[in-house]
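Entry 14. Structure prediction run on the chain below.
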Amino acid sequence: MKTSLHCRITEKRLDKLRLYAARRQKTMTQLISDFIDSLPTEAGDKRLEVDTRVEKLPASPQD
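Output returned:
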């Protein structure tokens, strides 16, 4: 379920966000969502633990 987020920022910051989004061909919502998704959880970021284990896997013999 999606919901709205309302926040107050300066016009200068809003312009900076709009420009950044346009240059990356993303919406401001996508940028904010990407940023939030990148934040670690208080209990630790489980994605980091998985990524570390994956990096330690031996290379496939087909490679």
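The longest helix spans residues 11-23.
Filed with the rest of this week's runs.
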